Amino acid sequence: MASERRLRIKTLLMVLAMVVCANVGDLMLKRGMSRIGAVQLTASGLAEAFRLTVTNGTIWIGIFFLTGFMLSYMTVLSWADYSYVMPAGAFGYALLTLLAVIFLHESVSPRRWVGVVLICVGVLLVGQTKPRTTALASEAVA
Amino acid sequence: MRVILALAVLILGSTGGEIAITHGMKTTREPARLRPLALLRFLGRAVQNGWFWAGVPLMALSFYSLLVLLSWEPISLVIPASALSYVVGTFGAKYLLGEQVSALRWAGVVLVCAGVALVAAG
Predict the structure, then answer these.
(1) DSSP code for A40
(2) B-interface mutation test, from A74, A109, A123, A124, most B Cβ less than 10 A away
(3) By mean pLDDT, which of A117-126, B72-81, B100-109 is the weakest?
(4) Is A33–B92 a contact, with Cβ atoms under 8 angstroms apart?
(5) For residues A31 and A58, is the Cβ–Cβ distance under 8 A?
(6) What band does A1 get if pLDDT is binned at 50, 70 and 90?
(7) Coil, strand, or helix at residue A138?
């Protein structure tokens, strides 16, 4: 029972780290790509877009945070189910809305509030299930 | 049409890549504790796993598809549409990874999928 509880707590902590890194990363990418403008789907257009993205500092900050997301994601997937971690990570969208309301005093449409409630209920339901339903290939080593 | 194609690449690339990486991480052995050294050792083992390297190009393809989509369409359209990957990914987890997806978990996934679509639609 104690190990079940420990598994749950460390899974939730890693999901939280994932959520924070993914949100900051996506925000930076969106900001960077908005400055670059619409990408043309031609060989030269894609090459030009590639050159602009790799020389854009904001894109690199986004990539740094998305790397942090990737590391926490890989770590949590070494012990928890993909079908547990993936929906639990959606909690970030609900969190982002709440932060926008509290700190940025943004007005939020009723449709978006319904979405936030659905996500929270969905994550709570997934959270009731066991974080791991498959056997481990081998025991953890240092 | 090009948006639907890019969206299919985004969803199938990300779920396919994540499933390959999940399989790789499960066979990698989890870190003994959540300390920097143990995490570094874990990372060292993870990058020697073939499944990890099968997943990376799929995720990179999906990532590039996301960048292209974001340059064409507002984020309020791209993210709601990509919310479908929650359902696609859960099917993958059940049939490819052998995870037990209970009715409760399915219900949660469907609510999350609908919720993400609504939130991102604004």
Answers:
(1) P
(2) A74
(3) B72-81
(4) no
(5) yes
(6) low
(7) coil
- The first and second tokens of residue A127, run together, are 């959270």
**Test the B interface: residue of A16, A59, A78, A117 with most B CBs within 10 Å:** A78
Q: Is B31 helix (H, G, I), strand (E, B) or coil?
A: strand
- The reported pLDDT for the residue numbered A140 is 45
pTM of the model: 0.80
Using the Cα atoms of residue A44, residue A46, residue A48 and residue A50 in order, give the sign of their dihedral: negative
Burial A30-57 (b: 16+ CB within 10 A, else e): bebbeebeebeeeeeeeeebeebbeebe
Query: Does residue A87 surpass a pLDDT of 90?
Result: yes
Q: Which of B31, B72, B75 sits opposite A78 (nearest CB)?
A: B31
Q: Which residue has the tokens 């709570």?
A: A124
Chain B residues closer than 8 Å to A7 by CB: none
Considering chain B, what is the average pLDDT of its residues? 91
Which spans in B1-122 are helix H?
2-26, 36-46, 50-72, 75-82, 85-95, 103-121
Q: Which residue has the tokens 């709601």?
A: B80
